[in-house]
TrEMBL record:
It comes from Lactococcus protaetiae. GO terms for cellular component: primosome complex. Gene3D superfamilies: P-loop containing nucleotide triphosphate hydrolases, PriA, 3(prime) DNA-binding domain. PROSITE patterns: HELICASE_ATP_BIND_1, HELICASE_CTER. It catalyses: Couples ATP hydrolysis with the unwinding of duplex DNA by translocating in the 3'-5' direction; ATP + H2O = ADP + phosphate + H(+). Signal peptide: none annotated. This is Replication restart protein PriA. The gene is priA.
Length: 776
């Protein structure tokens, strides 16, 4: 009897193993690995979604449940993706089904419909077919008699564009129009002149009445074409061609295309032309008939980068990032799956893009923590990239101006091959001068955000018609509401954290659990009416700028001004057109922006990130400062950078002056070695949560004890300690950190910890394991 091995969509430890289901006769021929099905599950035989991962021929004695419904006419997961899920599971401590689902677009995880299209163009909806017809159709899909078109069931309207199509040029030409009907005549000749072009109705300079006349006389008809939902982005970008690489770029390129033996670490200062190397590397692999994945961090923040790829590769590009709606994501996924798109540009999750025949994977700004997913499955895109590169024998390039210490250390040990770009690619652009401003000396006006030197530089630049970028490091800052009488701050009822004020919606929101409430009129503590709003840092800085420099035109970019779709792009576009003198923003302006007219970058507060209880605090601060400094003087005007700080002697700040990554690496490595942190040690965090604080403490001690017993003495086990924010979602959190070098029984020990949660007595206990956590 034919048995399908199926991973069911029920997140439980026992469902990590595939369950056996009988394949009913009518499905025998076309049920394939990678297809989704509905199967009965549990004692109640509830129908759940499952993914076919294997087949077996077995003799069955008992009654085996059968597959009940086919969800897809063709596989939605490739063999490679099934293999990836198996491989990644060992490092992410997540259920196999969540690994598999991470590879599917949301629309597939929930609901969507398919149209089956026949050769004559007739279409039927998959959802309206009977089971028998589904099977029949699936057969036809396999023999290519039918093709599949996916339609989003989502509420969004599909964008369409209307075109005027001439039915018969000769007939139109012969059609007589009265001389008095001037507009009609004009239209006729216009149509004839443009007979070989696609004429968009929108662009026509004639009234709809005129158009109607031509339609009614059967001279033309209107064709409605469905646009891919991201089409607008493509239309807006003008094309661009390859540059002649300089010696360093050429050498890096030659290495990358020659060997797939080791991953490459492309370390190049900002503006050294890394992106140009990426572009030409991708072009090379496309010529070989291969495909490429290009990862960039938080892509929605950097439309400038996406546009460079679209400019070079046009319609071959598919874009995947969190700023897209489910429908848009789905469209892009289809473009990849069907082979229309050969270059995938995207954020973290794009690493799972279902491309075949992969030639190269590039991860830009590889040090970015956003490459690690901080929800289950907690994978790092770099690890997935390594696996996929292995499967495809593809090249892997990690690029950065400030590589993560982990990657740099691997390059030093020869695990990666180091490629260096040491000069700015645009010869007239030299690295900016960086000046550190000691804010402890600026005691004249404690309340101001601006030192005298920064203010006078801003004025100077504006007078010269140049532009300025100001960054406020917002880590650890948010806007809130406080009572001026008693100092009461409104906290989340479920979490140990104050609620964040959202000015646009006039609400108080919890960024942890999603709790939302209105702003109180009176203080809940003392009934005073003196409730005061403390706006975001950027908002306050903006107000101050208006006061001191009323003539300066300021654009603000932070979470409040960018909540709506495309708000980022609009702000950056305005700034690019010089509709403002100053772009003031949070970290989101540090990355990837390339504005030739910007000659001054000011950092308002360099320190806020330094004091966080995170061993990567210095590394993150240094990276951020180096990155934002790279926004200045990118063309032929020399740039200047002013960094305001209360810790001018801290090495993470001082070394940005000489922009000396090498020295920073050396000092930071010393610190990591002394304190046994990565890259000298690996880390795993175990987070134990319970709604009862006593139980959370007790269980976390129990778990720490278990780990101490099961791991070697060379591993270091820290904790349990309360989390920095000790309670969220009405749960108390305690954490244990394991630092290890070689630990054969680690996976077994951690799985044993997870098994604790399967016990009936621990029903309310949550244990979460995070390998190489990025945020503490
Ligand atoms: P990075 O990605 O390292 O920051 P970019 O690739 O953005 O650097 O290059 C910085 C600038 O130099 C861009 O404006 C780019 O067009 C230009 N550039 C890059 N390579 C070359 C080259 N070989 N010749 C001329 N200009 C180049
Ligand atoms: Zn009060
Ligand atoms: Zn909350």
């Amino acid at each position: 009897m034919k048995i399908a091995k199926i991973i069911v969509d029920v997140p439980l430890m026992q469902t990590d193993k595939a369950f056996s289901y009988r394949v009913p006769d009518e499905l025998l021929d076309f049920l394939m690995i990678g297809m989704r099905v509905h199967v009965p599950f549990g004692s109640a035989n509830r129908l759940v979604q499952g993914i076919v991962v294997d087949f077996a021929e077995e003799e069955i004695f008992s009654d085996l449940k059968a597959v009940s419904e086919l969800l897809d006419p063709e596989p939605v997961l490739t063999k490679e993706q099934l293999w990836l899920a198996d491989e990644m599971r060992h490092s992410v401590f997540s259920y196999k089904i969540s690994c598999l689902k991470a590879m599917l677009p949301n629309l597939l995880n929930s609901s969507y419909d398919k149209l089956l299209v026949a050769a004559d163009g007739s279409k039927v909806k998959w959802s309206q077919l009977t089971e028998a017809d589904k099977v029949l159709s699936a057969k036809k899909v396999r023999s290519a008699e039918l093709s599949v078109e996916y339609v989003a069931k989502s509420k969004e309207n599909r964008k369409t564009q209307k075109f005027v199509v001439i039915n018969d040029v000769d007939k139109l030409s012969a059609f007589e129009i009265e001389k008095r009907a001037k507009k009609r005549l004009e239209m006729k000749y216009y149509l004839l002149r443009h007979a070989n072009e696609k004429l968009s109705v929108k662009d026509l300079d004639f009234s709809s009445a005129i158009l109607k006349f031509f339609v009614e006389n059967q001279l033309v008809h209107i064709e409605e074409v469905e646009l891919s939902r991201t089409q607008a982005t493509f239309d807006a970008v003008s094309s661009d061609s390859a540059k002649v690489l300089n010696d360093e770029q050429q050498s890096a390129f030659n290495h990358i295309i020659k060997s797939v033996e080791k991953p490459f670490l492309l370390e190049g200062i900002t503006g050294s032309g890394k992106t140009e190397v990426y572009l030409q590397t991708i072009a090379h692999f496309l010529e070989l008939g291969k495909t490429a994945i290009m990862l960039v961090p938080e892509i929605s923040l950097t439309p400038q980068i996406t546009n460079r790829f679209i400019a070079r590769f046009g319609e071959k590009v598919a874009i995947m990032h969190s700023g897209l709606s489910d429908g848009e994501k789905y469209d892009e996924w289809r473009k990849i799956k069907s082979g229309t798109a050969q270059v995938v540009v995207g954020a973290r999750s794009a690493i799972f893009a279902p491309v075949e025949n992969l030639g190269v994977i590039i991860i830009d700004e590889e040090h970015e923590s956003s490459y690690k997913q901080d929800a289950s499955p907690r994978y790092h895109a770099r690890d997935i990239a390594l696996l996929r590169a292995k499967w495809h024998h593809a090249a892997l390039v990690l690029g950065s101006a400030t590589p993560s210490l982990e990657s740099r250390a691997r390059a030093m040990r020869g695990v990666y091959e180091l490629l260096l770009l040491t000069k700015r690619a645009n010869e007239s652009a030299i690295l900016p001068d960086v000046e550190i401003v000691d804010m402890r000396r600026e005691i004249s006006d404690q309340s101001s955000n601006f030192s005298h030197v920064l203010l006078s530089k801003i004025k100077e630049k504006i007078e010269k018609d140049e532009q300025v970028i100001l960054m406020l490091n917002r880590r650890g800052y948010s806007s809130f509401v406080m009572c001026r009488e008693c100092g009461f701050v409104v906290d989340c009822p479920n979490c140990d954290i104050s609620l964040t004020l959202h000015m646009d919606t006039r609400t108080l929101n919890c960024h942890y659990c999603g709790h939302v409430q209105g702003i109180p009129q009176t203080c809940p503590n003392c009934q005073s009416r003196k409730i005061r709003y403390y706006g975001s840092g950027t908002q306050k800085v903006e107000e101050e700028l208006h006061e001191i420099l009323p003539e300066a035109r300021v654009l603000r970019m932070d979470v409040d001004t960018t909540r709506t779709k495309n708000a980022h792009e609009k702000i950056l576009e305005k700034f690019g057109h010089h509709e403002a003198d100053i772009l003031l923003g949070t970290q989101m302006i540090a990355k990837g922006l390339d504005f030739p007219n910007v000659t001054l970058v000011g950092v308002i507060n360099a320190d806020t990130g330094l004091n966080l209880p995170d061993f990567r605090a210095s590394e993150r601060s240094f990276e951020l400062l180096m990155q934002v400094a790279g926004r200045a003087g990118r063309a032929d005007k020399k740039g200047e950078v002013l960094i305001q700080t209360f810790n001018p002697k801290h090495y993470a700040i001082e070394l940005t002056k000489s922009q000396d990554y090498e020295k920073f690496y050396e000092m930071e490595m010393r610190f990591r070695r002394e304190l046994s942190y990565p890259p000298y040690y690996f880390t795993v965090q175990v987070l134990v949560s319970h709604k009862n604080e006593e139980v959370a403490i007790q269980k976390s001690y129990e778990i720490a004890q278990m780990l101490r017993q099961n791991l070697t003495e060379k591993s270091k086990i820290l904790g349990p300690t309360p989390r920095p924010i000790a309670r969220t979602h009405n749960l108390y959190h305690y954490q244990i950190l394991v630092k290890y070098r070689f630990e054969e029984s680690l996976e077994r020990a951690l799985n044993q910890v997870l098994e604790l949660t399967q016990l009936r007595e621990n029903k309310e206990l949550r244990v979460l394991i995070d390998s190489e956590p990025q945020n503490f």
